[in-house]
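Dear support,

Our group has been running a series of protein-ligand predictions, and this particular one with flavin-adenine dinucleotide is the one our PI (initials K.S.) wants archived with full inputs and outputs. We had some confusion internally about which version of the output was final, so please treat the block below as the authoritative record. The input we submitted was:
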Amino acid sequence: MTSPVLVPILGDQLSRSLSSLENLDPESAVILMMEVWDEATYVKHHKQKIVLIFSAMRHFAEGLRAEGFTVDYVMLDDPDSTGSFTGEVARAIERHSPREIRVTESGEWRVQQAMEEWADRFPCPVSICPDTRFIATHAEFRDFAAGRKHLTMEYFYREMRRKTGLLMDGDKPEGGDWNYDAENREPPKDGMNPPPAPKFDPDDITREVIALVGKRFADHFGDLEPFGWPVTREQALEAADAFFARRLEKFGPYQDAMVHGEDDLYHSMLSTSINIGLLLPLELCERAEAAYKKGTAPLNSVEGFIRQIIGWREYVRGFYWHQMPGLAEANELDAHRPLPEFFWTGETDMRCLADCIRTTREDAHAHHIQRLMVLGNFCLIAGIDPQAVADWYLVVYADAFEWVELPNVAGMILYADGGRLATKPYAASGNYINKMSDYCGKCRYKVSKKTGEGACPFNPLYWHFMDRNRDRLESNHRIGRIYATWDRMGEAKQAEYLESAEKFLDSLEPASKGWARA
Ligand code: FAD
Ligand code: DLZ
Ligand code: SF4
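Confirmed final output from the archive:
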């Protein structure tokens, strides 16, 4: 082959429709895929996340080879590996003397910065193609954000509905309303028996990767096995089929419900497949819309699912690129408490947190309301340092990439961005968790007890949070009224709340070093 095009494909770019692969002639291209130490350890990812990405990369490479492409695949244990994307592209240039490097833009700021230096560094032209798997372009998000103080997701979402035509009746929303969230807040029901999402037995490729990860990343957080995530497009499509056939119908109503020992409920469990490219966001939304049109799923479930994807997912991606690099440092509420050790061990008597951390350790997954209203709410009201929280979320979830994790952490749960993403902090006492879950009944703490020994820690922490952030939050019209309730309590009751919260906060053991970063 004379002077090929060199096409690096990253671990979250495993889509055959990737822009850098479009119209590529197998006869004159070399695909470069790299398992590199820097990516596996810049934070110490959950073991299953590394297995997922390496196994899916190896399967994707096989598929391209079967199509006739030359794939230069650098294994993690390659003795000559430099350990970084830039170092490996440099070595590949020596091997193949390409006439051009063609790559799809990175999902993460850190990697994009490195990629943008390639043109100056390397002897051939470098084209960086847009990631067309997203529905909104960077320019569209910039236009949406221009001149707005709060970047309210709902308005962006409506633009995406108009752009895609999903659930549109001419220029009106299907059913008359844009958003059916009010119908999607059912607590769990006794005897609810959701069909579990399919798990996939590891094949030879996955088993080899499991052995590698067990050996090389033994000190990383999380259970290595059982591993059941989809690692090929075929498996991901099977997982999607199961969701559309058996869980979409009830996805909406039980979206915010939490049940001890249950992670999947009616959630799609498709985020890992979407984020690494095995499934495309638009194809899933089209399938959901088709289910509504066929009458197999109601509008509130279908709209809810589509909103998570063309609304939230697209929105956080736009928000990330709009707010970086500052978002990674944001700390509007001046929160500096270290992350408690129990986030890594799960050893806490708070039954809700222990269960969310258990599923996180076992499956590298927790569902949205667990991430938001249990784990996230705790970090917010306990005043945990945003960078420590962001590291934790990036490490522990198999679907975590900074572009999606950071806006959810800094913006949605911690209000560290000063309210650009969320119009108010999602702070809640134990009452919310009790309403939406079955956690509290068997907890050592009593959710109805507000202060003192045995009181649910969320109760005093909630008021401690409100009190210590009064100057920042009182003028917020969505939260300001709370201070009238606080003032009516009187000094003695307030002191009880604050003392209980401080006693609890003092009892927290900070995380030992080395869990998230070496
Ligand atoms: P479902 O409940 O079935 O939802 C369908 C799809 O909608 C998801 O697969 C996902 O692609 C999308 N989605 C839903 N909510 C969001 C959201 N808030 N932001 C972006 N996409 C969304 N999701 C990630 O993919 N990666 C992350 O690193 C991540 N970190 C999060 C951190 C915090 C603090 C919070 C509150 C949420 C985070 N989420 C993240 C969003 C959400 O929790 C997960 O997408 C969801 O739990 C994945 O499970 P699922 O596929 O069953 O989702
Ligand atoms: C997350 C991850 C890990 C653990 N390892 C690799 C890897 O070795 N090679 C690779 O190409 N990608 C990996 N990834 C995904 C990248 O971190 C991701 O592609 C970039 O951060 C851009 O989003
Ligand atoms: Fe969680 Fe409090 Fe309920 Fe216990 S009582 S499960 S700590 S909300």
